[in-house]
Design goal:
heterodimer; A: 153 residues; alpha+beta; DNA polymerase, domain 1; five-stranded mixed beta sheet; 5 helices; 38% helix; B: 714 residues; Aldehyde Oxidoreductase, domain 4; 3 domains; seven-stranded mixed beta sheet; 30% helix; globular; disordered N terminus
Amino acid sequence: MTISLKINGEDRTLDVDPDTPLLWVLRDELRLTGTKFGCGIAQCGACTVLLNGQTRRSCVTPIGAIDGYDVETIEAVEGPEAEAVQAAWVDLNVPQCGYCQSGQVVAATALLREMPKPTDEDIDNAMAGNLCRCATYTRIRKAIRQASDTLEA
Amino acid sequence: MTQLTPTRRGFLTGAAGLVIATQLPLAARAQSAAATGSFTPNAFVRVGTDNTITVIIKHLEMGQGAYTGLASCVAEEMDADWSQVRAENAPADASLYTNAAFGLQGVGGSTGLASSYIQMRQAGAAARGMLVSAAARNWDVPESEITVEKGVVRHDASGNSASFGDLAEAATESAVPVEPPLKNEEEFTLIGQKVERLDSMAKSTGASDFTIDIYRDGMLTVAMRHSPKFGGKVASFNPEPALAIPGVERVEQISSGIAIYGQNTFAALKGREAVEIEWDDRGAETRSSEEMVRVWTEAARKPAAVAEESGDLDTALSEAATTLEAEYVFPFLAHAPLEPLDGVIELRDGEAEIWMGSQLQTVDHGVAAQTLGMDQGNIKLNTTLAGGSFGRRAQPGSEFMAQLAEVGKAAGNGAYKLLWTREDDIHGGYYRPLTVHRLRGGLDADGNIIAWDDTIANQSIIAGSPFEEALMQNGLDATAYEGSTRMPYAWPNHRVSWARMESPVSVLWWRSVGHTHTAYATETFLDELLEAGGKDPVAGRLELIKDAPRDRGVLERVADMAAWSGAGTGDKRYGVALHESFNSYVAMVAEVSNQGGMPHVSKIWCAVDCGYAVNPDVVIAQMEGGIGFGIGTAMFNEITLGEGGRVQQSNYDTYRMLRLNEMPEIEVSILNTGNEPTGVGEPGVPPVAPAIANAWRSLTGSTPRRQPFTVALS
């Protein structure tokens, strides 16, 4: 089956099994390896991407269900929110093993795009679905607040 | 797998002969590297003509900060500018990259920085010496008049200056200094300061390559089916339903199960579901974990092998004015690193190249050679970044490497990525051992502790592994009960005993190993004894550690930080715990309330003495992470075997991690005590659960005797 998508701003036509999760299309077909596999059942958030601007777990998203969508991955996430998030992530040394951080950065960027001044509760709600086995959570929280402050300034 | 053990052991004995302590590699290396234009003074440093300094990191970076820690030691002694420093994984090479604490290349036991601190500084100092010597020759001035600051080499009198890059080529002609002088602590500009982690940027932009991100031409992805019971074997299998799936290339039986090879991951995963397998459960563990708990508990109630004792415990117990007794149950635990176990192997006519987040490179390299029937020299093992480990990637028997090599061998020339699913990981064994503690304590009429008895029942991690000969003494595996012995508390009569249990369930060290359970059992039971004796948790401990200055230091510090004034009386209560592991001392105070019958942790204060904090921000990060890891585990995690011996959990839905909204506020204070730097990857885990439980006892009157709390309190 042929599926047409916009991936990171580029029009792509893919000939793949429509049941294939977007995650494996990104990784195996397109070599966009920043998006990670952690659980395969939408429990960890390591595979988080933006579909038409909304966070989505790519490990449970069949490619056949998103024909015509706009996909944004960690490799191309950009704009003032993404830059502020990534700068804060580096400044506060957020990552440890780093494996979940693509998903964390994508989720944090989506949060700030929607809500430039999130409360602590907003941050908790938006980020609770992204697991970090190293438990870098205190720094993730702090980095989102810092990125938010940068955007305001 | 067992058929490989004798020769594996032989291999390891051989490896021990290759130990090269902290000796700097030969000048010959500098010569051979000259051809590339860069300067490689030793096996740990490369200076490019582009002025970058690449530090070769011999330990697996799995989040603990090995890149930043080791590189900052090199950069400090070079007087480099931090912005010019990069990190690169060392190849597997036991002649150059041995961990001085182990005698082989590998990392664990929080030894990474501690064992490399002097060696890395020497490597940096030697590089600096050779660059300075090159400048002196170029400018025809005495070396003693040359200064180096932030990567710039200067001779003030002549007005000459050069970058390291400018001098890289000339420095290859310099003699290698034999014992380059090292700085004094007060001269440090990078060590002891916050620096940007070398891996922060790449990990924040998705650019870091983990093992899972390795793709080779024509590579097949391989999924596994393992026996659903520990110790089970394949009786027969039918590959046809799997082979009928488009993209499934082959199905092979290997010693650890059935391997399904797909053109891509999705095909391999579908094939994994489709293959039909009959299992042979003779020899499998068929007991449930509840049955095992009963057997372990019986054993802990009987006399067992004595690991440590003092005084006359039995008399003291019989004469005590008050005695207390408690039994604790700790479940099997999976490490569950977010990157599942994975590896890539490429076979090319008698040669092999492997990519893996290898934590014990020398052992893995040897097992790969043995499994493939190849000379180790024909196998290149590339260490890749690991998406977490927590001990899981350090297997003394290298079972995962053996599986990867068998996957390659069964299919012949080509490239193969072996990728476990999360379910494989959760079902896959190598757990923190199921453990039972039985404690008895006695007080005299004045409330002083005069008797302490701890019997621990669990499986041995070391027995049966290639480390058995080196690490087991008198039939005792200290990793089974470490933390119960060598306690800092001065009591006159005590005994620690170990009952070794047997099961086909595989067990492994898990972030802080024996301390995962000993800290909880001892620090909560001690708290109860102090209460029974009418003593405050902090003051009572301080009385018992008069001659343990480092324990005192962290306990006094954390009591100050939390403005300790007892457990409290309101909705928020406070609990304290103190525990040394891996020669680092950590004390914590937890602020806890009762939220619907479960502990809610709002704040943790933490004081740590790791001798000297080389990278204070990394130390703080490891304490924060260890605390989150410890809370999630104590609250939620257990691996259980149901009736018949099948694991009942399978993924993060049934084996759940702490989430961001559950993370407490954390305040960390570091004590620099002028001692040698010690590790911090593990020591942040042990004290947090007992601190929480002690606060919980203040709230409810009872200590959870079982982990996780969700089970104990339900």
